[in-house]
């Protein structure tokens, strides 16, 4: 993972704390993934052990184009001093400039995913401004029927730019379609057509997207 800047090691909102993802978060992240509905649209088998989640976190920590955070609820005073806050989700640049997130379903319906994504995007713009070359946009992909995720993206300014029909094979739901979203950095302009089939889009992605 790209080194987390000191100023990004604690990102606070009204209700949340975003901090760098750690290997010790594996148990909590497994609980997030196992929560009802959280993994429903993910096109691969659900993790079954903390070790498998730990491997995923390890891969995040070693990928230079990853900038991932754990999402925790700010302490309310009921926790003992020094006790770690429970991780309720993950948020970040999975592979810059691709954004991804997941929140434990027990915390749905409270606007927390939107709150976390808004906070992360401020961090993201600061992070990608220091890349070589800098990046001034973000992309996100979700299942066409994942309306909750799509609403979160749209509340945070992402624009739907394409639907890819029948492009993903889900292990239990069969062939699925993907909604492609784009967010341009405020006060910047994209030079070209905002369409994933355009040459300008492909060139932009190739400049920073490392598989």
Automatic annotation (TrEMBL):
Pfam families reported in the protein's UniProt record: Acetyltransf_3
Signal peptide: none
Occurrences of domain N-acetyltransferase (ranges): 16-188
InterPro entries assigned to the protein according to its UniProt record, in alphabetical order: Acyl_CoA_acyltransferase, GNAT_dom, N-acetyltransferase
PANTHER family: GNAT FAMILY, PUTATIVE (AFU_ORTHOLOGUE AFUA_3G00765)-RELATED-RELATED, N-ACETYLTRANSFERASE DOMAIN-CONTAINING PROTEIN
Name of the molecule in the record: N-acetyltransferase domain-containing protein
């Amino acid at each position: 993972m790209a080194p987390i800047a000191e100023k990004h090691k604690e990102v606070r909102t009204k209700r949340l704390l975003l901090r760098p993802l750690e290997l010790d978060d594996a148990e909590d992240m497994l609980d997030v993934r196992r929560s009802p509905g959280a993994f429903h649209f993910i096109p691969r088998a659900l993790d079954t052990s903390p070790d498998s989640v730990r491997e995923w976190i390890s891969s995040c920590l070693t990928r230079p184009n990853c900038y991932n955070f754990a999402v925790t609820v700010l302490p309310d005073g009921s926790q003992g001093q020094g006790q770690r806050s429970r991780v309720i989700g993950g948020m970040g640049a999975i592979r810059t400039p691709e954004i991804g997130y997941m929140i434990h379903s027990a915390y749905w319906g409270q606007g927390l995913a939107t709150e976390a994504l808004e906070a992360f995007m401020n961090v993201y713009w600061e992070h990608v401004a220091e890349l070589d070359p800098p990046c001034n946009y973000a992309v996100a992909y979700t299942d066409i029927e994942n309306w909750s995720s799509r609403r979160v993206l749209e509340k945070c300014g992402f624009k739907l730019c394409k639907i890819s029909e029948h492009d993903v094979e889900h292990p239990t739901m069969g062939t699925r379609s993907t909604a492609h979203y784009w967010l341009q950095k405020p006060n910047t302009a994209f030079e070209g057509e905002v369409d994933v089939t355009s040459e300008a889009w492909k060139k932009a992605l190739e400049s920073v997207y490392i598989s």
